[in-house]
Predict the structure.
Amino acid sequence: MDGWSVLAEAGELARRGQACAVATVVWRQGPSSSQLGSRAIITAEGELHGWIGGACAEPVVIGEAQQVIHDGRARLILLGTPDQFGAAVPDGITVVPIACQSEGALEVYIEPVLPAPHLVIVGRSPMAHTLADLAKALGWRTALIAGPDFSASDADEHSMVVVATQGRCDEEAVLQAVAARPAYVGLVGSRRRGRAVLGYLADRGVPQDQLDRIRVPAGLDLGRTTHQEIAVAILAELVQLRASGARPAAAPATRSVDEQAKAVDPVCGMTVALSEPSAGVRRDGVTYFFCCSGCRQAFEQDPAAYVKRETRC
Protein backbone atom coordinates (compact mmCIF):
# COMPACT_ATOMS: atom_id res chain seq x y z
CA MET A 1 0.00 0.00 0.00
CA ASP A 2 1.64 3.26 -1.13
CA GLY A 3 1.22 6.65 0.52
CA TRP A 4 -1.73 7.80 -1.56
CA SER A 5 -3.54 4.49 -1.09
CA VAL A 6 -3.11 4.89 2.65
CA LEU A 7 -4.90 8.25 2.57
CA ALA A 8 -7.72 6.84 0.44
CA GLU A 9 -8.15 3.88 2.79
CA ALA A 10 -8.20 6.19 5.84
CA GLY A 11 -10.99 8.20 4.23
CA GLU A 12 -12.94 5.03 3.50
CA LEU A 13 -12.62 3.86 7.11
CA ALA A 14 -13.92 7.22 8.32
CA ARG A 15 -16.89 6.99 5.96
CA ARG A 16 -17.67 3.57 7.44
CA GLY A 17 -17.59 5.06 10.93
CA GLN A 18 -14.24 3.55 12.01
CA ALA A 19 -11.62 5.65 13.77
CA CYS A 20 -7.98 5.29 12.75
CA ALA A 21 -4.73 7.25 12.63
CA VAL A 22 -2.39 8.09 9.76
CA ALA A 23 1.34 8.02 10.52
CA THR A 24 3.71 9.82 8.14
CA VAL A 25 7.52 9.85 8.22
CA VAL A 26 8.54 13.53 8.00
CA TRP A 27 12.27 13.11 8.75
CA ARG A 28 14.74 10.25 8.82
CA GLN A 29 18.37 9.66 9.67
CA GLY A 30 20.03 6.60 8.21
CA PRO A 31 20.39 3.79 8.52
CA SER A 32 16.62 3.36 8.42
CA SER A 33 14.36 1.14 6.35
CA SER A 34 11.79 3.90 6.11
CA GLN A 35 11.73 6.78 3.63
CA LEU A 36 10.44 10.35 3.75
CA GLY A 37 6.72 10.34 3.07
CA SER A 38 6.22 6.70 4.09
CA ARG A 39 2.72 6.32 5.49
CA ALA A 40 0.66 3.77 7.36
CA ILE A 41 -2.83 3.45 8.80
CA ILE A 42 -3.20 2.24 12.38
CA THR A 43 -6.65 1.16 13.55
CA ALA A 44 -8.01 1.53 17.07
CA GLU A 45 -7.38 -2.20 17.52
CA GLY A 46 -3.68 -1.78 16.67
CA GLU A 47 -3.66 -3.14 13.12
CA LEU A 48 -1.13 -1.47 10.80
CA HIS A 49 -1.59 -1.15 7.03
CA GLY A 50 1.22 0.38 5.01
CA TRP A 51 4.86 0.92 5.90
CA ILE A 52 6.37 3.16 8.56
CA GLY A 53 9.63 1.45 9.54
CA GLY A 54 11.24 -1.71 10.84
CA ALA A 55 10.58 -3.97 13.79
CA CYS A 56 11.72 -1.43 16.38
CA ALA A 57 9.76 1.54 15.07
CA GLU A 58 6.52 -0.24 14.23
CA PRO A 59 5.33 -1.23 17.75
CA VAL A 60 6.14 2.26 19.06
CA VAL A 61 4.18 3.93 16.27
CA ILE A 62 1.24 1.59 16.82
CA GLY A 63 1.11 2.38 20.53
CA GLU A 64 1.40 6.13 19.96
CA ALA A 65 -1.24 6.00 17.22
CA GLN A 66 -3.72 4.22 19.50
CA GLN A 67 -3.23 7.00 22.04
CA VAL A 68 -3.78 9.62 19.31
CA ILE A 69 -7.08 7.95 18.39
CA HIS A 70 -8.09 7.82 22.04
CA ASP A 71 -7.22 11.50 22.67
CA GLY A 72 -8.31 12.82 19.27
CA ARG A 73 -5.16 14.97 19.08
CA ALA A 74 -2.24 14.71 16.66
CA ARG A 75 1.31 14.35 17.90
CA LEU A 76 4.84 14.47 16.51
CA ILE A 77 7.19 11.75 17.78
CA LEU A 78 10.94 11.38 17.46
CA LEU A 79 12.37 7.87 17.59
CA GLY A 80 16.05 7.24 18.20
CA THR A 81 18.67 6.18 20.72
CA PRO A 82 18.32 7.64 24.23
CA ASP A 83 21.45 9.84 23.94
CA GLN A 84 20.99 10.82 20.30
CA PHE A 85 19.12 14.12 20.68
CA GLY A 86 19.93 15.44 24.14
CA ALA A 87 18.38 18.83 24.89
CA ALA A 88 18.04 19.78 21.22
CA VAL A 89 14.45 18.58 20.88
CA PRO A 90 11.91 21.41 20.32
CA ASP A 91 8.87 21.70 22.54
CA GLY A 92 5.86 19.78 21.36
CA ILE A 93 7.77 16.74 20.12
CA THR A 94 7.51 13.46 22.02
CA VAL A 95 10.84 11.61 22.17
CA VAL A 96 10.56 7.81 22.26
CA PRO A 97 13.93 6.08 22.79
CA ILE A 98 14.60 3.02 20.67
CA ALA A 99 17.88 1.13 20.56
CA CYS A 100 17.32 -1.94 18.44
CA GLN A 101 20.41 -2.81 16.40
CA SER A 102 20.36 0.49 14.51
CA GLU A 103 21.56 4.03 14.98
CA GLY A 104 18.93 5.43 12.65
CA ALA A 105 16.20 7.82 13.73
CA LEU A 106 12.72 8.79 12.56
CA GLU A 107 10.36 11.70 13.06
CA VAL A 108 6.76 10.61 12.58
CA TYR A 109 3.65 12.77 12.47
CA ILE A 110 0.58 10.89 13.68
CA GLU A 111 -2.87 12.39 13.14
CA PRO A 112 -6.30 11.02 14.03
CA VAL A 113 -8.88 10.29 11.35
CA LEU A 114 -12.14 10.39 13.24
CA PRO A 115 -15.50 9.51 11.71
CA ALA A 116 -18.06 12.24 11.25
CA PRO A 117 -20.76 12.22 13.94
CA HIS A 118 -23.64 9.84 13.31
CA LEU A 119 -27.00 11.52 13.83
CA VAL A 120 -30.25 9.56 13.64
CA ILE A 121 -33.41 11.68 13.46
CA VAL A 122 -36.64 9.81 14.07
CA GLY A 123 -39.68 11.52 12.57
CA ARG A 124 -40.77 13.29 9.39
CA SER A 125 -41.80 16.71 10.69
CA PRO A 126 -40.55 19.95 9.06
CA MET A 127 -38.24 20.41 12.08
CA ALA A 128 -36.75 16.94 11.51
CA HIS A 129 -36.05 17.75 7.87
CA THR A 130 -34.46 21.09 8.81
CA LEU A 131 -32.26 19.40 11.43
CA ALA A 132 -31.18 16.79 8.88
CA ASP A 133 -30.25 19.49 6.37
CA LEU A 134 -28.23 21.42 8.97
CA ALA A 135 -26.36 18.32 10.12
CA LYS A 136 -25.53 17.33 6.55
CA ALA A 137 -24.17 20.83 5.95
CA LEU A 138 -21.68 20.12 8.75
CA GLY A 139 -20.64 16.88 7.06
CA TRP A 140 -22.32 14.65 9.64
CA ARG A 141 -23.56 11.19 8.72
CA THR A 142 -27.28 11.74 8.99
CA ALA A 143 -30.23 9.37 8.79
CA LEU A 144 -33.86 10.55 8.71
CA ILE A 145 -36.18 7.68 9.63
CA ALA A 146 -39.96 7.58 10.05
CA GLY A 147 -41.08 6.58 13.53
CA PRO A 148 -42.66 3.20 12.61
CA ASP A 149 -39.53 2.26 10.64
CA PHE A 150 -37.03 3.01 13.41
CA SER A 151 -35.44 0.25 15.48
CA ALA A 152 -32.47 -0.11 17.81
CA SER A 153 -30.41 -1.55 14.94
CA ASP A 154 -30.40 1.88 13.26
CA ALA A 155 -28.07 3.29 15.93
CA ASP A 156 -25.12 2.18 18.04
CA GLU A 157 -23.15 3.35 21.06
CA HIS A 158 -21.50 6.15 19.04
CA SER A 159 -24.73 7.53 17.56
CA MET A 160 -26.79 10.55 18.60
CA VAL A 161 -30.53 9.95 18.37
CA VAL A 162 -33.16 12.69 18.26
CA VAL A 163 -36.77 11.53 18.50
CA ALA A 164 -39.08 14.03 16.82
CA THR A 165 -42.22 11.99 16.26
CA GLN A 166 -44.52 14.74 17.65
CA GLY A 167 -46.65 12.52 19.87
CA ARG A 168 -47.00 9.71 17.35
CA CYS A 169 -45.64 6.64 19.11
CA ASP A 170 -43.02 8.67 21.01
CA GLU A 171 -42.79 5.98 23.67
CA GLU A 172 -41.90 3.17 21.29
CA ALA A 173 -39.39 5.31 19.40
CA VAL A 174 -37.60 6.37 22.58
CA LEU A 175 -37.69 2.78 23.86
CA GLN A 176 -35.94 1.62 20.69
CA ALA A 177 -33.43 4.46 20.95
CA VAL A 178 -32.57 3.62 24.55
CA ALA A 179 -32.10 -0.03 23.61
CA ALA A 180 -29.30 0.99 21.24
CA ARG A 181 -27.47 2.68 24.16
CA PRO A 182 -26.34 5.63 22.01
CA ALA A 183 -24.13 8.48 23.16
CA TYR A 184 -27.13 10.83 23.17
CA VAL A 185 -30.92 10.45 23.20
CA GLY A 186 -33.11 13.53 22.94
CA LEU A 187 -36.90 13.83 22.73
CA VAL A 188 -38.46 16.82 21.01
CA GLY A 189 -41.50 17.84 23.03
CA SER A 190 -42.67 19.65 26.12
CA ARG A 191 -41.46 18.79 29.61
CA ARG A 192 -44.96 17.54 30.42
CA ARG A 193 -44.89 15.19 27.44
CA GLY A 194 -41.41 14.13 28.44
CA ARG A 195 -42.52 13.15 31.94
CA ALA A 196 -45.27 10.99 30.46
CA VAL A 197 -42.83 9.21 28.13
CA LEU A 198 -40.27 8.65 30.89
CA GLY A 199 -43.00 7.29 33.14
CA TYR A 200 -44.04 4.85 30.43
CA LEU A 201 -40.46 3.67 30.00
CA ALA A 202 -40.02 3.26 33.75
CA ASP A 203 -43.15 1.07 33.83
CA ARG A 204 -41.59 -1.01 31.04
CA GLY A 205 -38.56 -1.69 33.25
CA VAL A 206 -36.04 0.72 31.72
CA PRO A 207 -33.38 1.33 34.43
CA GLN A 208 -33.26 4.75 36.02
CA ASP A 209 -29.67 5.40 34.95
CA GLN A 210 -30.76 5.07 31.31
CA LEU A 211 -33.80 7.27 31.84
CA ASP A 212 -31.55 9.95 33.32
CA ARG A 213 -29.57 10.08 30.05
CA ILE A 214 -32.62 11.05 27.97
CA ARG A 215 -32.64 14.77 27.19
CA VAL A 216 -36.18 16.20 27.42
CA PRO A 217 -36.75 18.53 25.72
CA ALA A 218 -33.87 18.09 23.29
CA GLY A 219 -31.78 21.14 22.47
CA LEU A 220 -30.64 24.31 24.19
CA ASP A 221 -33.43 26.24 25.88
CA LEU A 222 -34.18 29.19 23.59
CA GLY A 223 -37.74 29.78 24.81
CA ARG A 224 -40.62 29.96 22.34
CA THR A 225 -39.16 29.49 18.86
CA THR A 226 -40.00 28.37 15.34
CA HIS A 227 -39.37 24.86 14.12
CA GLN A 228 -36.27 26.09 12.27
CA GLU A 229 -34.89 27.60 15.48
CA ILE A 230 -35.67 24.39 17.39
CA ALA A 231 -33.53 22.52 14.87
CA VAL A 232 -30.71 25.01 15.42
CA ALA A 233 -31.06 24.64 19.20
CA ILE A 234 -30.81 20.85 18.99
CA LEU A 235 -27.81 20.96 16.70
CA ALA A 236 -26.16 23.53 18.97
CA GLU A 237 -26.56 21.16 21.93
CA LEU A 238 -24.99 18.30 19.97
CA VAL A 239 -22.09 20.50 18.87
CA GLN A 240 -21.66 21.60 22.49
CA LEU A 241 -21.58 17.95 23.55
CA ARG A 242 -18.78 17.22 21.10
CA ALA A 243 -16.87 20.40 21.98
CA SER A 244 -16.89 19.35 25.63
CA GLY A 245 -14.71 16.40 24.69
CA ALA A 246 -17.36 13.67 24.51
CA ARG A 247 -16.84 13.09 20.75
CA PRO A 248 -19.19 10.07 20.77
CA ALA A 249 -18.58 9.08 17.16
CA ALA A 250 -14.85 9.01 17.64
CA ALA A 251 -14.62 6.84 20.69
CA PRO A 252 -12.40 3.83 20.02
CA ALA A 253 -13.43 0.30 20.83
CA THR A 254 -10.20 -0.52 22.62
CA ARG A 255 -8.64 0.57 25.84
CA SER A 256 -6.35 3.54 26.08
CA VAL A 257 -2.68 2.67 25.57
CA ASP A 258 -2.01 3.95 29.09
CA GLU A 259 -4.46 1.34 30.39
CA GLN A 260 -2.84 -1.58 28.58
CA ALA A 261 -0.43 -3.90 30.34
CA LYS A 262 3.17 -3.20 29.37
CA ALA A 263 6.61 -4.71 29.75
CA VAL A 264 10.16 -3.48 29.17
CA ASP A 265 12.31 -5.20 26.56
CA PRO A 266 15.40 -6.28 28.58
CA VAL A 267 17.67 -5.93 25.52
CA CYS A 268 16.90 -2.46 24.17
CA GLY A 269 14.83 -0.97 27.00
CA MET A 270 11.79 -0.24 24.85
CA THR A 271 8.29 -0.40 26.35
CA VAL A 272 6.22 -3.18 24.79
CA ALA A 273 2.42 -3.45 25.05
CA LEU A 274 1.58 -6.99 26.11
CA SER A 275 -1.32 -7.02 23.67
CA GLU A 276 1.20 -7.07 20.85
CA PRO A 277 1.89 -10.45 19.23
CA SER A 278 5.47 -10.66 20.50
CA ALA A 279 6.27 -13.98 22.15
CA GLY A 280 7.77 -13.97 25.61
CA VAL A 281 10.67 -16.03 26.95
CA ARG A 282 10.38 -17.67 30.37
CA ARG A 283 13.50 -17.82 32.53
CA ASP A 284 13.80 -18.52 36.27
CA GLY A 285 10.09 -17.88 36.78
CA VAL A 286 10.07 -14.53 34.93
CA THR A 287 8.61 -13.92 31.46
CA TYR A 288 10.56 -11.46 29.31
CA PHE A 289 8.97 -9.69 26.35
CA PHE A 290 10.63 -8.19 23.27
CA CYS A 291 9.91 -5.52 20.69
CA CYS A 292 11.23 -7.66 17.80
CA SER A 293 12.81 -10.99 16.91
CA GLY A 294 16.31 -9.43 16.92
CA CYS A 295 16.08 -8.55 20.60
CA ARG A 296 14.61 -11.95 21.39
CA GLN A 297 17.53 -13.69 19.63
CA ALA A 298 20.07 -11.53 21.43
CA PHE A 299 18.49 -12.46 24.76
CA GLU A 300 18.38 -16.17 23.98
CA GLN A 301 22.05 -16.15 22.98
CA ASP A 302 23.22 -14.52 26.22
CA PRO A 303 20.44 -14.26 28.84
CA ALA A 304 22.87 -13.48 31.67
CA ALA A 305 23.73 -10.16 30.03
CA TYR A 306 20.15 -8.95 30.35
CA VAL A 307 18.37 -10.72 33.21
CA LYS A 308 19.52 -8.16 35.76
CA ARG A 309 17.41 -5.52 34.05
CA GLU A 310 13.97 -5.19 35.53
CA THR A 311 10.97 -6.21 33.47
CA ARG A 312 7.35 -7.05 34.10
CA CYS A 313 5.52 -10.31 33.66
About this structure: Helices lie at 3-15, 57-71, 126-137, 170-179, 191-203, 208-211, 227-243, 293-301. The first strand starts at residue 20 and ends at 29. Confidence is low (pLDDT under 50) at residues 247-259. The chain has three domains: 3-113, 118-246, 261-305.
